[in-house]
Amino acid sequence: MVMKSTLLAILKDLDDSHEYIGNRKFKSLYFGGGTPSLISVKIIEKIINRLNEKKLLEEGCEVSFELNPKEVKEDYINNLVSIGINRVSIGIQSFDANTLSSPDTISSPDIKAIEIASGVETIDTTIDLIYGVMGQSLESLQKDSLEQFVASKANHLSLYQLTIEPNTIFYKKELHLPSDVLIESMEDEAKEILNKNNLYQYEVSSWAKKGRQSKHNMNYWMYGDYLGLGSRRS
Q1: Is 225 exposed, middle or buried (0-12, 13-18, 19+ CB in 10 A)?
Q2: Which among 34, 128, 32, 38 has a CA at the least distance from the CA of 85?
């Protein structure tokens, strides 16, 4: 019942947005900003089908889906591909077990997840990594994150610097994060390694191989229009 209610709410939100959409079509569709994998693939399929019925998706539309590493299974990826998903974003955060044991990280690394996703030729794979976490060194960023990423077949990297916002649990912990000087060195090291391996920065936190940039990211970066469907809209 909960899933059905979720589906009906999203479809109603889409129908109610007709005046905003007008005669335009979407060049990208993004399931994320949370854990969309908690919803069944059938519901995701129904949303895509409704968009196709309304002829709202451009030909070659980029359809992205966020996943945690533990959710990446071969059957699940194949099911996503069968309904039209052509890009997945995996929140690895770090390949370094020591880094992940810090209180300011959440997910566990799973190289197998990348192997499964990047082994599917019809989808692009992007990986999320963070740097500047407590206890991280320049060497660990290089050896345990960047070089591991380069060794994978993923063609897009979202590389985020950890920032601790006031009035959060992490802020109250008074974590000892790397110095600004070390952070700058990490950024320089990342640029050198990624450029050497034909990955280039196209916005503040995104790196990609030629022709593999995210259309969705670029739309935000270029101040393009977008429509958010769900419990919150901005």
Answers
A1: exposed
A2: 32
The whole-model pTM stands at: 0.86
Nearest to 126 by CA among 199, 74, 220: 199
How far apart CA 2 and CA 4 sit, in angstroms, is 5
Residue pair 93/129 in contact (Cβ under 8 Å)? The answer is yes
Third-level CATH fold of 65-220: Transcription Regulator spoIIAA (3.30.750)
CA 105 – CA 57 distance, rounded (Å): 36
Distance between CA 182 and CA 132 in Å, rounded? 8
Rounded distance, CA 207 to CA 95, Å? 18
C-alpha to C-alpha distance for 132 and 184, rounded to whole angstroms: 10
| Gyration radius (Cα) of the chain, Å | 19
31-81, pLDDT tens digit by residue? 987 778 888 899 999 999 999 999 999 999 999 999 988 888 999 999 999
How far, in Å, CA of 168 to CA of 46, rounded? 37
Q: What is the mean pLDDT of residues 178-195?
A: 96
- The token pair at 165 is 């916002």
Query: What are the DSSP calls for 129-193, one per residue?
Result: EEES-TT--HHHHIIIIIHHHHHS---EEEEEE----TTSHHHHTT--PPPHHHHHHHHHHHHHH
Distances (CA, A) of 13 to 17, 27, 65, 231: 6, 19, 20, 9
Q: Evaluate whether 66 touches 95 at the Cβ level (below 8 Å).
A: no
